[in-house]
Amino acid sequence: MLGLKLPTDPRWVNIVEKNIEEILTDHAYCEQKAASTAISLIIGFPEKSELVKEMTALAREEMGHFNMVHDKILKRGWVLGRERKDEYVIELMKFFPKGGSKETHLVHKLLYAALIEARSCERFRLLSEEIADEELSEFYRNLMVSEANHYTMFLTFARKYGDKDVVDQKWQDLLDYEAGLMKDLGKKETMHG
């Protein structure tokens, strides 16, 4: 359903289980960054009323998720750690060339967001099915549904604001590139890395 070309190695869950505090901190910041992305799309493209409306709702939802993850951290007697660099996102954002029209820039931002949400959804599914911690298993099962909806929303907007055939080709190319990235990732207790 997600179209990802390379699934996460299930052994990633073993890495996560050895340091739950790290994955929860990383996850919290991922939710905060997702809210920031939604806000940046509102700021950059205020004339796209439908996009503004959806991104407003998304920013609220993502900050709600941030709060839920933060509550899990506090419940376990920990505090939110410092933000880490997201190697996955840094490398992913190198795919599309800089410059181009405003519409092209929007399509690229939407495709990046769709792919990040798709990979998050895939990771949440894996955690929901494989992690021994029953509370976290249920937590990630619930979040997985939301991430799938976000992925399809971003992809739908990309197809709306760009030529569908061109967007679909860019999407496939981005998926191929991301599969190459994933060969070297999945070895850390981070949501994407």
Task: Describe the fold and architecture.
The protein has 193 residues and is mainly α. The protein has a single domain (12-183), classed as Ferritin, core subunit, four-helix bundle (Ferritin, Up-down Bundle). The protein contains seven helices and no strands. It has helices at residues 12-17, 20-44, 49-75, 87-92, 102-130, 134-161, 164-182. Helix 2 packs antiparallel against helix 3, helix 5 packs antiparallel against helix 6 and helix 5 packs across helix 7. It is globular. The two termini are 22 Å apart.
Could you write a compact summary of the structure shown?
By secondary structure, the protein is mainly α. Helices cover 73% and strands 0% of the residues.
- Work out the helicity level: over 70%
Distance between the termini: 22 Å
Order of helices and strands: HHHHHHH
Our Rg estimate from Cα atoms comes to 16 Å
The number of strands is: 0
- Number of structural domains: 1
Average pLDDT, rounded to a whole number, is 94
**CATH architecture descriptor name:** Up-down Bundle
Question: Residue ranges: pLDDT <50 for 5 or more in a row?
Answer: none
Global structural class: mainly alpha
CATH superfamily: Ferritin, core subunit, four-helix bundle
CATH topology: Ferritin
Instruction: Tell me which oligomeric state these chains represent.
Output: single chain
Q: Count up the helices.
A: 7
Please report the first level of CATH classification, the CATH class.
Mainly Alpha
Q: How would a crystallographer describe the biggest sheet? A: none
Strand content: under 5%
Approximate shape? globular
